[in-house]
Specification:
Strand content: 15-25%
Number of helices: 7
Strand order of the largest sheet: 1-2-5-3-4
Mean pLDDT: 90
Helix content: 25-40%
Order of helices and strands: HEEHEHEHEHHH
Low-confidence stretches: none
Shape: globular
Number of strands: 5
Structural class: alpha/beta
């Protein structure tokens, strides 16, 4: 089965911040997703919905899985927001300032998914971009250009008043 990954996985890169937003794999599609995640250099998968696959499959491939579910269509509770931002800070070797010797397009990649990859996943990635110094509405535009249909009104308002 050939999945058009260009449509399913959206790459969002800004300086040393490297994300992939995707929809939710199932047990059946996980092996195909895993190949693609490995090709893209993904080190971590952040799962924001209820589990639909066995995370041991990813862990066996050296990919860490972080389960931080929150309400569909909602905004992240501060505990999840902070956990996500500290993961970003750690993996990307600095969220607000890229490392001095950073080379564009290198380093770890964090994959983030909810069910459709249109609400919860983009809202966290957008927050990370704002943390990295992007203006909230620029960050929204940046993500939406790469992930059509991302973010609902509640999420937009939250991002807008984020900083």
């Amino acid at each position: 089965s050939n999945i058009p990954f260009a449509r399913i996985m959206s790459t969002i890169e800004h300086r040393n911040l490297r994300f992939v937003i995707l929809d939710c794999p199932t047990s059946n599609t996980l092996p195909i997703y895993l190949e693609e995640l490995k090709l893209r250099g993904v080190t971590d998968v952040v799962r924001l919905c209820e589990p639909t696959y066995e995370k041991g499959v990813l862990q066996a491939a050296g990919i860490q899985v972080h389960d931080w579910p929150f309400k569909d269509g909602g905004v992240p509770p501060s505990s999840i927001l902070h956990a996500f931002l500290s993961l970003c800070d750690e993996r990307f070797n600095g969220l607000t300032h890229p490392p001095k010797d950073y080379k564009e397009g290198t380093g770890p990649v964090i994959a983030v998914h909810c069910v459709a990859g249109l609400g919860r996943a983009p809202v966290l990635v957008t927050a990370a971009l704002v943390e990295a110094g992007m203006a909230p509405l620029d960050a929204v535009e940046f993500v939406r250009r790469r992930r059509r249909g991302a973010l609902n009104t509640i999420q937009l308002n939250w991002i807008d008043s984020y900083k």
